[in-house]
Automatic annotation (TrEMBL):
Belongs to the multi antimicrobial extrusion (MATE) (TC 2.A.66.1) family. MepA subfamily. It comes from Alistipes shahii. GO terms for biological process: response to antibiotic. This is Multidrug export protein MepA. InterPro entries: MATE_fam (IPR002528), MATE_MepA-like (IPR045070), MATE_MepA_subfamily (IPR051327), MdtK-like (IPR048279). It is a multi-pass membrane protein. The lineage of its organism: Bacteria, Pseudomonadati, Bacteroidota, Bacteroidia, Bacteroidales. It comes from the Bacteria. It is found in: Cell membrane. Signal peptide: none annotated. One of its GO terms (cellular component) is plasma membrane. GO terms for molecular function: antiporter activity; xenobiotic transmembrane transporter activity. The chain crosses the membrane at residues 20-40, 52-76, 97-120, 140-161, 173-194, 200-218, 238-263, 275-297, 318-338, 358-380, 392-413, 425-446. Keywords: Antibiotic resistance, Cell membrane, Membrane, Transmembrane, Transmembrane helix, Transport.
Length: 465
């Protein structure tokens, strides 16, 4: 137990660069594996079922975002709360957070899955499905929703493992899921002939196996945080704090749900079903780089949360700076791929020439402002990591609601009426434009907050002197 506590305590004493590498590298590997996890499904479905199946899969993105919204509401909030309580040496509350995570994920996971299953067809039609694509989307989501509670539990407990000083175990859980899914996908799709349903079964089964492993780890009484009697009763303050912090990623994913609906509807209106498939491919490729940045952010989260709780503001600012540099490097690599080698990337998903052409055009536009979005993502996660939920929520929603949503509503019509291009170009161009404007907002908010930290640091130094 002493050794496990020291793993958490080193967050306040070890060199920041070493800590960030120690925590971020496993998270990056895990998030990269997680993005590959989604790409594997798309690649096997694209080659094993067909181009319209990719469009059907893309139609499920809003519902997947909505499920992720509820998962992050609990998981991200719990991870931040645990980091802060460990920084304050409040181990009893951190233990109770673990129990509350388990119960909340069980309740929300079952409720969401059942409600979505009851109204699945109307939901998919609202998302932009047609008679040609709804069969694929329905087959896939029925299985995913039946296993929704498993997904919630798996993601929530992974956040707990990472926040409690076990980034490698969190990484292993994700990698195990990806490897199992990659093995089962071709077996179920090609070998058993289950098609798109086989991809969904492989996804859920892989998560079940990893969840069993997580439950075994957290049942070990030698762990700093472990399952025991008395921690499962929902505590009003813990639930309130957890949901307040998790509200930022929840609203971000909720907004993403509505955004993808608008994108799908706009692309279907001006480009047809295949254009939705093109967005599905571009979204998977963008998601790959976004997930790596999220991995860097997850490495920052326990370090920033712990040191903010311990009032070591110089260490908080140092980890922020290093995270910004790392994230910008990742998104710049995405920009280079999107602008100079888009056909190579898109070709992994399909051999259909028309689908490749549409996806390449979209990718070049969407990836245009990629070098700066790493900054915006880190700034948002930073405020969340130190418990400033209101600022994190505002930054989360600035891109989605203030800039992207109006762009998706007005730009397609403007392009269609006022230019030689059709409205689908307006849909694509809305994305980099919103990235640019949201990054400006994040820059001004973060600059203001860092000035306050510097002032506090100078005041503390003067008192000590």
């Amino acid at each position: 137990m002493t050794e496990i506590k020291s793993a958490a305590l080193e967050l306040g004493t070890e060199r920041i660069r070493k800590l960030l590498v120690q925590y971020a590298v496993p998270a990056i590997i895990a998030m990269t594996a997680s993005s590959l996890y989604n790409m594997v499904d798309s690649i096997f479905i694209g080659h094993g079922v067909g181009p319209l199946a990719i469009s059907g899969l893309a139609l499920t993105f809003p519902l997947m975002n909505l499920a992720a919204a509820f998962g992050s509401l609990v998981g991200v909030g719990a991870a931040t709360l645990i980091s802060m309580r460990l920084g304050q040496r409040d181990y009893e509350t951190a233990q109770r957070v673990l129990g509350n995570v388990l119960v909340l994920n069980l309740i929300i996971g079952i409720a969401f899955g059942l409600v979505a299953l009851l109204f699945l067809d109307p939901i998919l039609y609202f998302f932009g499905a047609s008679e040609a694509t709804i069969g694929y989307a329905r087959e896939y989501m029925t299985v995913i929703l039946l296993g929704n509670v498993v997904t919630h539990m798996y993601l929530g407990l992974n956040s707990v493992l990472r926040a409690s000083g076990h980034p490698r175990k969190s990484m292993y859980a994700t990698i195990n899921t990806v490897v199992i899914n990659t093995i089962l996908d071709p077996l179920f799709i090609f070998g058993f002939g289950w098609g798109i349903r086989g991809a969904a079964i492989a996804t859920v089964l892989a998560q079940v196996i990893s969840l069993v492993w997580q439950l075994r780890i957290l049942s070990n009484k030698q762990e700093l945080l472990h399952f025991r009697r008395g921690i499962y009763r929902l505590r009003k303050k813990i639930v309130r704090d957890m949901l307040a912090i998790g509200m930022s990623p929840f609203l971000m994913n909720l907004a993403a749900c509505f955004i993808v609906i608008l994108i799908n509807k706009g692309l279907k209106e001006y480009g047809g079903d295949l254009m939705i498939g093109a967005y599905g491919i571009v979204n998977r490729l963008a998601f790959f780089f976004v997930m790596i940045v999220l991995g860097v952010n997850q490495g920052m989260q326990p370090i920033a949360g712990y040191n903010f709780g311990a009032k070591q503001y110089d260490r908080v600012m140092h980890v922020l700076k290093l995270t910004m540099i790392g994230a910008t490097c990742v998104t710049t690599a995405g920009f280079l791929l999107g602008e100079f080698m888009p056909r190579l990337a898109v070709g992994m998903f399909t051999s259909d020439e028309e689908l490749i052409r549409l996806a390449v055009e979209g990718m070049r536009i969407v990836f245009f402002c990629f070098p700066i979005i790493g900054f915006q993502m880190v700034a948002t996660n930073f405020f969340m990591s130190i418990g400033m939920a209101g600022k994190a929520i505002f930054l989360s929603l600035s891109r989605q609601l203030l800039f992207l949503m109006p762009g998706l509503i007005f730009l397609p019509h403007i392009f269609d009426v006022c230019t030689e291009w059709n409205g689908s170009w307006g849909v694509w161009c809305s994305m980099p434009l919103s990235d640019f404007l949201a990054s400006l907002v994040a820059f001004f908010m973060l600059t203001y907050q860092l000035r306050k930290f510097r002032a506090i640091g100078a005041e503390n130094a003067a008192k000590e002197g």
